[in-house]
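Here is the promised in-class demo. Please do not try to memorize the tokens; focus on the logic of going from shape to residues.
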């Protein structure tokens, strides 16, 4: 599908007719959580720094890992230890890293806020019997707390604890499709980062990218979604 650009409609602001087509045909919609449905204020650079610090304790050169996100740093470090014949140390590192990340995420997610239009959009999907799933790289407990605090209606949660490989790997999406027995073309994946779009695309779903108004550079420039919007409420 070609890269669709929204255009301005005088009555409704940004409006993209393509998204209505893909939502109409959808049996299920999978949403990323942070930045897509909710604002949690997670400081990803602090998560990364804390993880780099931990990895260094295991004698791993952290310099080549500095530009990666926290979860990728953990995976690369675990792989490096396995190659060194220290698989057990790798598993210990993973547990320690995940515990540290969970504590930090829990603190950041103490007061989540809904993204404008979130409740209305989910209500519309509910009314037309579309299944709603949450796919997140967050810890499961943190995600559950956020979903419960904001009373976000959903049928399924696939967190990082529910997969072996996190987004951009398509496993989050595949777990949901398998659970629901929904074919990939009948599912839409919505997210605010290229990893969401890549996970959906790799699973064979259609994708919606939200290039947030507070993000200066298009995060989807190398991974164009089927539909691009600037705000969640444009999907209404
Ligand atoms: Mg996100």
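The designed amino acids, position by position:
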């Amino acid at each position: 599908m070609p890269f669709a650009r929204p255009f301005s409609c005088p009555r409704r602001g940004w409006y993209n007719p393509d998204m209505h087509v893909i939502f109409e045909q959808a049996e299920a919609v999978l949403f990323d959580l942070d930045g897509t449905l909710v604002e949690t204020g997670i400081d990803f650079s602090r998560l990364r720094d804390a993880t780099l610090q931990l990895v260094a304790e295991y004698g791993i050169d952290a310099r080549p890992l500095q530009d990666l996100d926290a979860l990728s740093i953990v995976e690369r470090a675990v792989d490096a230890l396995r190659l060194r014949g220290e698989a057990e140390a790798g598993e210990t590192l993973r547990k320690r890293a995940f515990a540290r990340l969970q504590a930090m995420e829990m603190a950041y997610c103490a007061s989540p806020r809904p993204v404008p239009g979130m409740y209305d959009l989910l209500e519309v999907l509910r009314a037309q019997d579309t299944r709603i799933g949450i796919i997140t790289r967050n810890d499961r407990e943190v995600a559950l707390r956020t979903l419960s605090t904001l009373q976000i209606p959903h049928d399924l949660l696939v967190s990082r604890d529910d997969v072996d490989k996190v987004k951009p790997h398509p496993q989050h999406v595949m777990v949901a499709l398998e659970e629901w027995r929904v074919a990939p073309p009948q599912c839409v994946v919505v997210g605010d980062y290229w990893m969401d779009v890549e996970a959906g695309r790799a699973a064979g779903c259609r994708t919606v990218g939200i290039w947030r108004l507070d993000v200066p550079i298009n995060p989807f420039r190398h991974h164009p979604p089927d539909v691009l919007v600037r705000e969640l409420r444009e999907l209404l």
